[in-house]
Amino acid sequence: MGGQRRGTREGQEITIVEVGPRDGLQHEPITVSTEAKVAFVNTLSRSGVAEIEVGSFVSPRAVPQLADTDEVFSRIDRLPGVRYSALVPNERGWARAREVGVEKIALFTAASETFAKRNINCTIGESLARFTPVVSAAKQDGVIVRGYVSTITHCPFEGPVPPSKVLDVAGRLLDLGVDEISLGETMGMAVPRDIRRLLDHVVRAIPVTVLSLHLHDTYGLGVANVLVAWEEYGLCSFDASAGGLGGCPFAPGAAGNVATEDVVYALRASGATVAVDDTMVVQAATQIEGVLDHPLTSRVSKVLRQKAKSAVHGQTGP
Amino acid sequence: MGGQRRGTREGQEITIVEVGPRDGLQHEPITVSTEAKVAFVNTLSRSGVAEIEVGSFVSPRAVPQLADTDEVFSRIDRLPGVRYSALVPNERGWARAREVGVEKIALFTAASETFAKRNINCTIGESLARFTPVVSAAKQDGVIVRGYVSTITHCPFEGPVPPSKVLDVAGRLLDLGVDEISLGETMGMAVPRDIRRLLDHVVRAIPVTVLSLHLHDTYGLGVANVLVAWEEYGLCSFDASAGGLGGCPFAPGAAGNVATEDVVYALRASGATVAVDDTMVVQAATQIEGVLDHPLTSRVSKVLRQKAKSAVHGQTGP
Questions:
Q1: Is B252 in contact with A227 (Cβ distance < 8 A)?
Q2: Reported ipTM
Q3: What's chain B look like in SS3?
C-alpha cells in the first residue's frame, strides 16, 4: 500500500497551480467585473505560484462568469516565471486562446461517462476525439497542454469511480500528446484511502512527475489528501484556489477548491519547499472576496487576517 | 516511523468526546444563556457522541462564559450511554462538580512551562500537586478522571515542544491515578509529521487505549491529523466540537476545535465505525450558531445544510 515511504521528501519543491480565477470563480452567482479579475490575477502573479488558470474559453452561455476571459488575458500583466493558462473545450475555444497568446491550455474530460455527459455533453470518447486536433495544433504552436480527468474517485451520478477508469482516460490523454494530467476530485468526498487506492493504480503506469492533484475541500479532506499524495507518492504539483474560492452555494457537490494558503502551510510545515508567499495569496483572496456575496473560509487566511488583532489569553483550559 | 501500519483498522469503533459546550464556548464574546447551553447539550446528547464536556468549574472570573456550569449540569437531560464531564482546576472546582453529580472530571495542565504559567498560573509541577487530592477524592467517589496535556507540539510562547516533555507530563498524570490522557494540540499548527513524532514517542510508554487526541483546526490540519492518529497508531478517541465551534476571534492561536461532523465523516469514510449521527451534530451546531455573532465554518455542516437546496450543474469543467 502506498508508493514510496514518506520521510525522503524533505525540501522537495512543490508546484502550485492557482485555479481561483477559473475554477474558483466559475460558479459565483455575482458577476465579477473584468477589472476585478485582472486585479486578482495580478496579485496572484506576485505570490510565487507557478501557474495561474486565468479563465475558460468555453461557451459564454455555459459559463457566463468567464465570458470575458479573452479580455482578462489581454489586460493582465504576465510576469516572467509565471504560466498563464486557460480551459479550452474544443477548436473554437482553441482559436480564442490562440488569439490572446495563451501559453498553456487545459482540456477537460472525466473518468465517469455520466459526468462527462452532464458536464461537457458528450461521451469520454467523443471528448478525446474533439481534443485531437486541438492538441496537435497547440503542440505545433509550442503551447503546453494539460488534460483534466475529473471524478477521479466519486461521481455525483455514478457513485464510486474505479481507478482503472481514471488510468484509462489519463493514458488516452497522454497518448494524444498532452503534457500533464490533472486528477480532479470533483466531489471533495475522497479520504486518503481513496487517494491511495487511485494513486497505487495510476502511478504504476504514469510517472508522478506529469501528475497534478486537483482537490475540492467539500468535506474538509483537501489538505489531508494533499499530504498523502506528497508524503506517500511524491506527487509535487497541486491545484488550489486562493481563499478556497469556489463552491456553488446551491450545489454541495461542487464546493470550493482546497485553499492555496492551506496547501502551502501544510506542505511547508511538513518539510516541502514551497516558493509561495501565503500573505500575498491571502491578499488576493481578500481582494476578490470584496466583490463576492459570501466570506471565504480558508483556515490559514483566517489566521493571517486575525494575526494583527491577536490578543493574550486568560486562564481557560486546553 | 509510525505505529502499526494502516489497513487493519476497518470497522474499529471510534469514541467522540464532544467538547463544544466547554472548549467551543469558553472564548465566545457573546454571553450564551443557560437555556441555550442546556438545549445545545440536549441535542448533542441525542447525536450518539460518547461524552459531552458540558462546562468548567474554574473561576467565573477566569471564564465568565462558563460561570453557570453548575446550573447547566442540573438542568440538562442526562441520557444513559452518554457521559457528561467538566473541567475541574482544583479542590474548589471539585466541590462544585461533586455538588451537581458530575460523573467524569477533566484536569488540565500543559507540556510547556510558560503556557502553564500563562494559562493556569502555576508551574506544571504545582498543577500536578494541586490535582493530587482531587484525583484521590474523585476516585473514591467512583468518578472518572481525564488529564489534559496541552501544547503537545507547539506552544505560543516557547515554540516547538519536545515529545519527551509531553510523555513526562502524561506519565505523571497517570501516576496520580487519572484514567485517561487527552493530548491537546492547542495551537492547531501541527502537521501529520508532528503528530507522528509525538505519538512515536508517547505510545512506546502509554497504551493508545487511554489516549484521546484534542485538535484545533486553526491551520486546517485537524482532520489530516485525526486520520494519521487513527490509521497509523490506532488511536480511537477524539475530542471535537459541533460545527468547529471555538476559536477566539481575536486570538489566532486558539481557533476552533476540529469539527465533530468533519471528524465523523473522515473516519467513517475511511472505514471506521462511528456511532454518531452527523445531521444531529449539525443541528446542534446550527442551534448554538443562532445565538452567536459569527457563522460556524465546518465543511461537513456546510454540505449538510446545503444538501436540501442542491441544484444540477451546467457545463463548467472539472
A1: no
A2: 0.93
A3: CCCCCCCCCCCCECEEEECHHHHHCCCCCCCCCHHHHHHHHHHHHCCCCCEEEEEECCCCCCCHHHCCHHHHHHHCCCCCCCEEEEECCCHHHHHHHHHCCCCEEEEEEECCHHHHHHHHCCCHHHHHHHHHHHHHHHHHCCCEEEEEEECCCEECCCEECCHHHHHHHHHHHHHHCCCEEEEEECCCCCCHHHHHHHHHHHCCCCCHHHEEEEEECCCCCHHHHHHHHHHHHCCCEEEEEHHHCCCECCEHHHCCECEHHHHHHHHHHCCCECCCCHHHHHHHHHHHHCCCCCCCCCHHHHHHHHHCCCCCCCCCCC
CB A176 within 8 A of CB A139: no
- Which one of A281, A299, A312 makes the best mutation probe of the B interface by having the most chain B beta carbons within 10 Å? A299
Per-residue pLDDT of chain B (318 residues; tens, 9 = 90+): 444 455 579 999 999 999 999 999 998 989 999 999 999 999 999 999 999 999 999 999 989 999 999 999 999 999 999 999 999 999 999 999 999 999 999 999 999 999 999 988 999 999 999 999 999 999 999 999 999 999 999 999 999 999 999 999 999 999 999 999 999 999 999 999 999 999 999 999 999 999 999 999 999 999 999 999 999 999 999 999 999 998 754 455 457 999 999 999 999 999 999 999 999 999 999 999 999 988 888 899 988 887 755 544 444 455
Rg (CA), chain A: 19
* Residue whose C-alpha cell is 487545459: A106
Q: Which structural domains are found in chain A, ordered by start? A: 15-307 (3.20.20.70)
Residue of B nearest to A239 (CA): B318
CA distance B37 to chain A (A): 18
Asked if the Cβ–Cβ distance from B192 to A303 is below 8 Å, we say no
